[in-house]
Amino acid sequence: QENEGTSSTTFSVISSPYISTVSPNTGINSSVITATITGTYFADGSTTKLTRTGYSSINGTNVSFVSATELRCNFDLVWISPTPATPGIWDLVVTNPGGLSYSKQSAFTVTANAPTVSNLSPSIALNNNTDFTLKIVGTNNFTGSLAKLTKSGQPDINMKSLISVSCTLST
Q1: CB 107, CB 39: distance < 8 Å
Q2: Nearest to 90 by CA among 108, 115, 64, 69
């Protein structure tokens, strides 16, 4: 004799999120940006973060679930311990409440404010084809910056090397 019957089972299919775009995809490390992330399979309660090997993650705050294809959040690029976010290319990670996540590589670029110059010392130098040290004082970190002296109708004088907040120029 065969037993016949029916059974009712309810189950949910959980899919990994997928990121298509983030807008804006760049931000200055002196700002908090509001990002719109589009993709598929987002869930209410998803988390977001920017990651980069060797650096602290930048966790998204005020994450808003708009739909299964859109999230909005803020990224504070100003206060990432111990300094503002390091300029460069960052990955974007979305994690759904079930723990499934997706990382979009090279999704976001952090930039820095351009350096500003408030003082040059000395203010004059001889044009005798010798090196001299020019102290540049300003804001927004000169590390990795390039400098040159310009004058209309004359060739530029390019920086030879950068030492702290000073640079040596060849004349």
Answers
A1: no
A2: 108
Is residue 33 within 8 Å of residue 27, measured between CB atoms?
A: yes
Chain CA centroid to CA 83, Å? 13
Secondary structure in 3-state letters for 65-119: EEECCEEEEEEECCCECCECCCCEEEEEEEECCCCCEEEEEEEEEEECCCCEEEE
pLDDT tens, residue by residue, 12-48: 667 899 999 999 999 998 899 999 999 999 999 999 9
6 burial (CB, 10 Å; 0-12 / 13-18 / 19+) is: exposed
Strand partners, 49: 59, 93
At 170, the pLDDT band (50, 70, 90 cuts) reads very low
In b/e form, how buried is each residue of 47-67, taking b as 16+ CB within 10 angstroms? bbbbbbeeeeebbbeebeeee
Question: Is the Cα torsion angle 153, 156, 116, 133 positive or negative in sign?
Answer: negative
Overall pTM > 0.70? no
Supply the mean pLDDT for the chain: 84
Residue carrying structure tokens 């920017």: 50
Cα–Cα distance between 25 and 23 in angstroms, integer? 5
